[in-house]
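User: Fold this; tokens only.

Assistant: Input:
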Amino acid sequence: MPVSFKQKKQTTYRPDSDQPSNLLDQAFAAVLNSADYLIRHQQKDGHWVAELQGDTILESEFILLMAFLGKENSEVCRKCSLYIQSQINIEGGWSNFPAGPFDLSVSTKAYFALKLTGVSTELPWMKLAREKILQAGGAENCNSFSRFYFALLGEYSYQNCPEVPPELLLLPSWFPVSIYSMSSWTRTILVPLSIFSAIKPSVKLPKEKGIRELFVNDPWESNWPSAPSKEFFSWRNFFLLADLAIKKIAPRLPFLRKFAVSKAAQWMREHFQCSDGVGAIFPPMIYTVVALRCLGVEESSPEMRWALQQLNDLIIEENGSVRLQPCVSPVWDTALASIAIADAGQPKDELNLRKAVDWLLKKEVSGKIDCSTNYPDMKPAGWFFEYNNQFYPDIDDTAMVIIAMVKTNSHLRPDCAAAIERSVRWIFLMQNRDGGWGAFDKDIDQEFLTKVPFADHNAMLDPTCPDISARVLEALGELGYTADEIHIQKAIEYIRCSQEPWGAWVGRWGVNYIYGTWQVLLGLKAVGYDMKVPMVAKAVQWLKECQHKDGSWGETCATYNDPSLAGQGEATPSQTAWAILGLLAAGEENSDAVRNGISYLVSTQNHEGDWVERFFTGTGFPKVFYLKYHNYRVYFPLMALSRYSRALGYAFKQNTY
């Protein structure tokens, strides 16, 4: 449909307020301090990028890969080992987020990686980790991706791993079980893993480096790759029988298997182009190296050196230890930093924001993208997350870039206006049948696919989620679209139906209900929705009820496993800012909750202009993998302080970038 840009709505700010003037003065001083912090950390070419941190599976899996290549004794592995040791829980083992519970897969891989790098298993904390692993059912109960690593290093039978058949590449995209019926991140993992699964490489470790002591049962005894369901007829049992059939039939059809592997290799290599690795994320980067080795590619070849370099580019060395990022986030960081600085409204930052917008324009997708396979008439558009990931623009980054361009008034530039128009048209075409939006694909929501044996990473699908749907509303609202638009009406109805009984919305890409609720309130406000309706009032009341006595908010990653913990957790600057921003969108600028939240942010800002944030507030795969965006502690408090100051009468200069 044609896209027409409307005049951005202007907001009239009240000249006075009943808030204490000293708090306003302090808030505005904090705004200037925080904006200066971000400007100091801007890259010379205009973009921002901060560390993206995950749990120790990154370092563990890197060491396991190096062991496959015979390099577990290298200096980089030793330094990864030091980092893993620094992250051990006092109670024993390792977690997938700070202060989280023991996690079997994370702990087993950490133990294995440390043993490979020469750490004694007789150390008290290694003994304790081993005891907890055995108490949890042993290494055989780890998730499927972990068991592939064990098989790769000769510690587990491939027969007990789920089959990831490369023959999936031979199925048409419209088939219910094709790679294009799965989420984009599963697709990028699955294709190189299918080569790995078909060839079944394995190295023989010295006995003293193995982990037989972590298995309760014999790892070579035949077993199902995942537990069958109690019901005789179920999708899980169907896929387990299919897995068994493939294992029996594939060896008898070597020509078909060889052809399928060649198709998978072709797909993988096509996705090297204009990308920082397949999907530009850690798991497929690891599997790419294994797949290339399976295909006979020499380590000295340009192709293998390129694949290994993508992993090396994720390394951060600090204080003698090494940690790895799951990917990098420059487009996301640049959009968020631009919004935060534009909110601060200082004319001295005009050049910096113009440089940021120029950098973002260069990252717009223009070539072939994966989701066009199912929708060939859909013209590619939008933005991705990393430096280079041309096959995978996503709705979330695209919406955030649009907001950044409007906030800086860059949407008035012809080049930005054209890019926004292309992206808005793409966003409309990507709307799911239920009225909302997912991340990378359209209508990837076939629940039966979550029952395949290798689906235990909890990310087979890319369903609609409230936070992305609401961010789209925010972006469209910034362009002047209103709740009268048919696309927006459908999205609002989805949001209305997805509200939790206690008033919050789940956050798919941030932790958790505070994140989802904040974003929904911003999205509804942006499109002119009535913020006095019961749905909004219920959300506002929930946010107020979960505020801490000191004015802060915090929420643990454990809420994905236990929703009864919604809104509970130790304080973080980012989650405090999200709650404040949500309340401001609902017209609560004069409330005690907002005033106390602002007071908390002002009092905890350090002299550098940022805040301390220890906990993870980003989400990769709910229940499985969480993230810490290191500059969330700055972007969102700056937005909250700026919007509070503006709403309470501080006269900000209108940006005209």
